[in-house]
Design a protein that fits this description.
Length: 449
Amino acid sequence: MTFDVQLLQRYDRPGPRYTSYPTAPQFTSAFGESQLRAAALASNGDPIPRPLSIYVHIPFCYSPCFYCGCNRIVTRDLARADLYLTRLYREIDLNAALFDRDREVRQLHFGGGTPNFLCPAQLRELVETLRRQFHFSDQADRDISIELDPRFIEPAQIAELAEMGFNRASLGVQDFDPTVQAAVNRIQSVEQTHALVAACRASGFRSINVDLIYGLPKQNAIGFARTLDSVIEMRPDRIAVYSYAHLPQMFKAQKQIQSTDLPTPEAKLGLLQLAIEKLSAAGYCYIGMDHFALPDDELALAQARGKLHRNFMGYTTHADSDLIGLGVSAISHIGDTYSQNFRDLIGWQAAVDAGHLPVFRGMHLSDDDRLRADLIQQLMCQGEIQIARLERRYDIDFERYFERALERLQPLIDDGLVRHDRARIVVTPRGQLLLRNIAMCFDRYLETL
């Protein structure tokens, strides 16, 4: 990978992360419950129905992390979890009735918020409810994963999670520097994090991910280097290094962060460069979009085989699945449709209480959407676009169909970010950190911006 500071500064502009195409801002209220029901029915009727992935959103957190832009509810009232679960079970009932029982669930992921806000007994009941309502795969490659906040779970509880079937864990760290932790209201020691990683290993978890963030207030190269060294010593299978986006007008908690405490754009890029150099030297492969993995991790192996996939849960090996989103704000991808649940708890509760699927917006993909979604998947996961494959699959002349997109791409070709010939468009080492900029050239919804 080539790290060119001036190049990165020149292309520094907001853009989608392309966990979907079209992206969520394109969803509309014209897509609702009846459209989702029709999509599920149509997916059951496919000659070979796709397996299922399930995402469950647990929105609660014990304390606010000031950098957070997630859909979460800060509370220490544990009774709120019981009320949420009561409605979540109703939503599970409504969704399970839509899908044929012979469709295997190959992936289950708990996100948030803080999923371990739920106590082990609640988590067990939730997993068992899902198992009763859906047909879970018993294959060795099934994924049952959970995001964990190391501050609020004891290592001894990890064995209980393994007994429930969890085999993957993602641990939030962000930064171990005490000054940074105080600035973002997240005090978390290396020792408690290391103990949790060790417990996951001892309990047979197949994969462990650690999340870091660069660009946080008070962050500097010396402290971040220590954080990286501590994480590398733990040897997680995957590491995500996200860029902090300071948007206090959108996320209330970020108003607690003083903009004067943030690193300069140049210093922030220096933190990214530091992470890339250290992780590469430690043997991690760059997967794409802030994600790194060890060479023998399933993500790296899937990418090498051309089987990597990207969706709302990030990078995954389950490319051929329909995704069912459960809980407030969760997003589903069924067939050629996207749908999102109500993002506010009150709206979600009211819909479920009325016996409705809590969909408030979504969309049905057009032929053009499906083509561009396929192209962007290739780009984000494999770093290339196979032109002949797209021409055969969608019966198009690539150069003519994407004439305007290729005009937008030309400056990136001139800057050496991609190579373009008759057969392929390939991301170069200079372009690997600018995948979203390359993908944006092919985003029809950005053409008018």
